[in-house]
Amino acid sequence: MSARAADAGPLRRGIAVERWTIGWMLVEAALSLGAGAAAGSVALLAFGADSVIELISAGVLLRRLRLEQAGGGGVRLETSERRASAIVGALLFLLALWVAGSALRDLLLHARPARSPLGLALAAASTAIMPWIVAVKRRVAPSIGSAALRANAACGMVCAYTAGTLLIGMALRTWLGWWWADPLAALGIVYFVVREGREAVEAARGRADGCGCDD
């Protein structure tokens, strides 16, 4: 059996898990943006916007894996990925600025977002689902020798931490009525968004550990 044939199975699994990631990011983005707009929640809106940017990154990685499956790649692919990472990094830094400004405004004005059972359920689901997706990627990446998928898996944990931060904020707002928990959670999300942005910039510069934003 050729090396390429031996890698075909794991590579198919890598493509499959990235498709699962894209599917979940679509659900996550649509529901969190909708719920965030309805409740006036900065944290939910930040989470949804981050999911949209993560969706872009996941699409870039899926394209890379499919080209590897077809035996393609090369310099043009690397250049395209670095350009995409630079765009993703810029979007993440802009998102961090918007979220920080909105969260501080809500804290100063004592803005009180409405309770969002949908947002709370979504945060709980994402906190459970993302570690599972990360575990699958970590198993597949070494078998196909994909540094991109391995780095993507590491960044996936950042997404899980972001979801966990959102979950804590939503739970405190829903069950204890702490209005300030929402903007405070948003400020916590800013930390992870900035971290994602820095890693995307590193990827754009060609550093092996840069992981874009599907974290």
Structure explained in plain terms:
By secondary structure, the protein is mainly alpha-helical. It has a single domain (3-203), classed as Alpha-lytic protease prodomain-like (Up-down Bundle). The chain has 6 helices and no strands. Helix 1 (3-39) packs antiparallel against helix 2 and helix 1 (3-39) runs antiparallel to helix 4 (117-144). The protein is elongated and about 55 Å long. The protein starts with a helix and ends in an 11-residue tail after the last helix.
What secondary-structure arrangement, pairings included, does this model have?
Layout: H1 3-39, H2 42-69, H3 75-109, H4 117-144, H5 147-176, H6 181-204
Helix pairs in contact: 1-2, 1-4, 2-3, 2-5, 2-6, 3-6, 4-5, 5-6
Defining traits:
single chain, 215 residues, mainly alpha, Alpha-lytic protease prodomain-like, 6 helices, 0% strand
CATH class group: Mainly Alpha
**Low-confidence segments:** 1-6
Give the CATH topology: Alpha-lytic protease prodomain-like
Strand content: under 5%
Sheet of most strands: none
| SS field, number of helical segments | 6
Structural class: mainly alpha
| Overall tally of domains | 1
| CA-based gyration radius | 18 Å
- Please trace the helix and strand order, writing H or E for each element: HHHHHH
